[in-house]
Amino acid sequence: MPRVPMPDGPQATPGGIPQGRLVSPEVSDVGARQMQGFGQALEGAGQSMGKIADDIQARADQTVAKAGDVQAMEAASKLLYDPKGGYLNTRGDAAIKGYEVAQQGLRDQYASILDGIPNPRARAMLEPALAQRMAHARQQMDMHAGTQERQFRDNTANARAVVSYQTAAQNFTDDKGWSAADEVARNETRARAQINGWDETTEQLQFQQYRDTGLKARYDAWSVKDPQAALAHYLKNAAQLSPGFQDDVGNKLFLKAKSLLAMEVNANGGVGFAPAQGGAAGAAGASTGSGDLSAARGLRNNNPGNIVKSGIQWAGQVDGNDPRFASFATPEAGIAALGKNLLAYQGKYGLNTVQDIIARWAPATENNTSAYVAAVAKEMGVKPDAPLNLCDAATLSGLTRAIVRHENGKQPYDDATLGRGLSAALGQSSLPAAATRAPALPDLGQATTGLPLIDGLPPQWKQEVLHLAATQAKQSMAAERQVLDQRVKDSSAEYMANGFASNPPGEGAFIRAYGQDEGVRRFREQQGVAALGQNLQQLKEMPAAGMAELVKASKPQPGVGFAARQQNYDILLKAVDHVNKARANDPVAFALQAGAYGIQPIAKPDDLGALGQEMARRASVAPQMARDYGTPVNLLTDGEAKGLTALLRTQPVEQQKKLLGAMAQGVNNLPLYKAALQAIAPDMPTVALAGLYQASGYRTTQGHDTADLILRGQAILTPPDAKEDGSGHAGGKALVKMPEAKLMLSDWNSVTGSAFKGSERAADLYLQTARVVYAAKSAEDGDYSGVLNAGRWKSAIQIATGGIENHNGSQIVLPYGKPYSQFRDYVGGAAPQAIKAAGGEFSAGGAKLAAADFARMLPGAQLQSVQGGGYWVRAGNGVVMGANGRPYLLQVPR
Question: What is the spatial distance between Cα 638 and Cα 85, in angstroms, rounded to a whole number?
C-alpha cells in the first residue's frame, strides 16, 4: 500500500504507529547546576521511570492501532477483491447497481473498527491510516464503477444491434421488419461511437459489419425455406452488403437455387426455341420476337397454334429446339399449318362447330376445354354449336385469330401476315420464301426466358442455369423412364379395372422419359388405354344404341399407332359382346352387378314389406332399363324368380295370395306386373296366371275369386308334402283323382276350337289352368272319382280363359269377365264409331281401306284372339293392317 503523507505531524504507515519525541530543559549556573544535576538525577530517575511507563503504553496503543489497521486491510481486501463477491470482481449491471452498497459497506466496516478501539491515543494513531485506506478504496471503486458503466452501455448497445438483426433474420420475408432492425442498428452504432469516442469512419465500418452479419443470417435462413426467393431478393439488395460479403452470400445463394432454377426452366419448356427470322418482306407483325425466350412458346416457335411434333412434315417446318412442339421458319408457315389442320377437321372428320373443333384441338385430358370453347365462340361472335364454313376465308381467319389469342395470351399478327398464311392453307397461294433450318442457338447467357428471376441473373450464372437445365433434361430420361413404366402399368390396370386412374402420367412425363416423338406416341397409346378403360366401365350403363355408336366411332384408321388402337378395338368388341350377352341373359342381374338404376337385391322374399318396396323401385326403372339394354321388360333376376317359386311352393294358398298381392301392389302397373309374373311362369305357370287374375280382380260369374280357385286347385294337384326331417317340401300326390287326360283334351278342343290358333303356348297355359280349376271344383263338390264331369270341365275352361265364344263363325277368347252380349255390342257399336271418328288409313289384302269402310265392315268381320290381349280383324285370308304397316289390334275393354 502507498504511504499517506501527514503534514506537521507523525507519519503513519501500514506497518507502524506514529512516533513521538521527549526533550529536557537547559540550566545555567553551578549551584544550580549541582542542584540541577541532583535534580536532574532525580528527574532522570523519575523520567526514566515515566519514560518506561510511556513507552509501555505507547507500545500497547501502537499494538492496538496496528491490529485495527490489519483488520481494516483485511476488510477492504475482502470487500474489493473477494473472488465470490468482491466489488472489483463484479461486472456490468451488477457493478453499477452494487456501487453504493459497496461504498456503504466500506464506511460501515471502518466505523465498526474504530468503534471497537476505546483508547483515544490508539484511535488517534489509527484514524489517519484508515482515512487513507478508505480514500484509496473509494478511488478504486469509483474507477471500477465508471469503467463498468461504460462497458455496460457499450455492451447493451452492441447487443441491441445484434439482436435486432437476428430477430429480423428469422422473419426473412418481412422487409419492413428488416428496415426497423436496420434503424435500430444504426442508432446503437452511433451510441457506441459516443461511448468509445470513435470517429465517423470507425462508426460506419461497425454499422456495415452489423448489417453484413445480419444479412448473411437472413439469407442463410431464407435459402433453407425458399432458395429462389432468397436469391431474387439478394439480386435486388446486394448493394447493402460490403463487397467481400456480396460475393460470399451471392455465391452460396446461387449454389442452393441453381438446380431449382434449372428445373423451372425445364418445367416451362426447356432451353429450346426457334430463333426469329421475320416474315416475308419484313411485314409488320411477322416477327414476334421468337428468338426471345420471354415470348409465348407458340410465338417463339412461329407455331401460334402449338401444333405438336408428329410424322407430318409441314411446309416451312424447321429443325427447332423445342422438345415437344413443331417449329417453323416464319409465322406465315405456322399459321398455314394451323389453317390446314382446321380445314382437315371440317373436311375429313366433319367437325364444323367451335364446340367440336376445340374439343379435338384441345382435348379435356390436357385442357380446360369448356373455357377454351367459350373464349373462342365469344371472340367469333357465334354460338358454340353453330355450324361454321371454314372454306370461307373470313370465317377461317376469325377462328384462327381466336385460337392464336387463347394459345398465346395475345394475337400479335397483322392482317397481312394472317392473310398470307391462311391463303397458303386454302391453296390460293404459296408461302413466302424462307430458310429451311433454324440458325444455331445464341449465347444462352444473353438469352431471355420469360422467367424474371432467371433473366435477372448475371450472364455467367444464367449460362450455368440454362446449361444445367439442358443437362438435367438429358440425364433424367433414364430415371424418368423407369418411374414412368411402373406408373403406366399401374394406371393401365386401374383404367381397365375401374375406368380411371388415381395417378396417371401426363404427356410431359412421356416426353421427358422418351423424347418428343416417342413420348407423344406412347402417351397417345396410354390415352387409348384410358379411353378403352372408361368405355369398358361405361358399357355397364351405356344403352345398346350408345354401344353401337361407340363401336362405330372407335374403329381405328390406319396410321401411326394403328396396331395398338386395333388391339384396343378388339378388346372393346369383346367387351360389348359380353355385355350384350349378359344383359340378354339376365338384365336385372346385370343391372344389380353394375350398381345401375338404384335397385337392390331381393334378399328375403318372405319379407312382404321390403318385397313390395323393391318391386316399386324396379317398376319405376324397368321401362328405361329395357330401352337401354334392348331387352324385354324384366323385374326379377333368374335367381330371384327361382327363389320366389321355391317359396310359393311351400306356402299355403292364403300366404301365396299375400305374397302375390305384395308384388302387385308394389309394381302398381298391370303390364309391368305381368312381366314380373313371366319370370316365375316357366316353373309355376298357373300360379303366375293366378297372380295376374288376382291383380286384375277377376271373379267368376258366380262371384268366386278366380285366383283363389286356381291356387287351391294347384295345391290340390301338387300338394306340399312335409319331409320327416323338416328340411323342406316336395310335391306330393294329387288329393283329387283327375279324369283321363285325353278325354279332357278332347273336350277342351271342342270348346276352344280355333280360339288359340297360332298361340299354342297360351293354349297350353289355359289348359293347365282349367285342369287346376276343375280339381278345385271337384273338391268343392266332393267328387274324387276321377270320372270326367263334362259340365264341370266346361265351367272350368270358361273360368280359366274368361270365356270362349263363336263370333261371326270363329272361336274367340272373351275379355275376362265380359259377357258376350256386351262384347258384341262394343264391336258392333262403340268400336266402329271410334275408328270412324279417328280416321286414318288402313289396308286389307294390299288394298287401301278408308276408316269409314273399315268401321262398316267391323261388326260382321271375323276376329282372331291375340296372345297378350286384343284381336286381329280378319279380311279374306289376311288381317286388316294399320297405317304403320302392322296388323291393326282391336282392344276391347274388360
Answer: 103
Q: What is the spatial distance between Cα 261 and Cα 463, in angstroms, rounded to a whole number?
A: 12
Determine contact, residues 647/659, Cβ cutoff 8 Å. yes
Which of 488-502, 668-682, 826-840 has the lowest average pLDDT? 488-502
Angle, CA of 161, 167 and 169, to the nearest 5°: 100
In one-letter notation, the amino acid at residue 408 is: N
Return the closest-CA partner of residue 711 out of 663, 765, 764, 775: 775
Q: How far apart are CA 704 and CA 710, in angstroms?
A: 11
Please report, as a single letter, which amino acid is at residue 658: K
What percentage of the chain has pLDDT greater than the value 70?
A: 86
Could you tell me if 166 and 192 are in contact, meaning their C-beta atoms sit under 8 angstroms apart?
no
With 0-12 / 13-18 / 19 or more C-beta atoms within 10 angstroms meaning exposed / middle / buried, residue 315 is middle
Q: Are 186 and 207 in contact (CB under 8 A)?
A: yes
Q: 341 in helix, strand or coil?
A: helix
The pTM (predicted TM-score) of the whole model is 0.46
CB contact at 8 A, 624 and 617: no
- For 45-78, what is each residue's pLDDT tens digit? 565 666 677 677 778 777 887 887 887 778 888 7
Q: Which amino acid does the sequence have at 449?
A: T
Q: Distance (Å, rounded) from C-alpha 23 to C-alpha 322?
A: 124
Q: How far apart are CA 890 and CA 831, in angstroms?
A: 8
What's the confidence (pLDDT) of residue 877? Answer: 86
Q: Are 796 and 714 in contact (CB under 8 A)?
A: no
Query: Which of 111-115, 125-129, 326-330, 432-436 has the lowest average pLDDT?
Result: 432-436
What digits encode the pLDDT tens for the residues 566-581? 888 888 888 888 888 8
Strands 729-731 and 317-318: unpaired
CA distance 429 to 393: 13
Element (H, E) at 843: strand 841-844
All residues at 6 or more sequence positions from 9 whose CB lies less than 8 Å from its CB, including other chains: 18
Q: Which is higher by pLDDT, 218 or 73?
A: 218
Q: Which residue has the higher pLDDT, 302 or 4?
A: 302
Residue 774 and residue 768: Cα distance in Å, rounded?
A: 10
Give phi and psi for 807, each to the nearest 5: -120, 115
Output the furthest CA–CA distance in the chain (Å, rounded). 214
Residues 6+ apart with CB under 8 A from 239: none
Closest among 211, 235, 214 to 172, alpha carbons compared: 214
| pLDDT class of 190 with cuts at 50, 70, 90 | very high
Strands, E assignment, 378-456? none
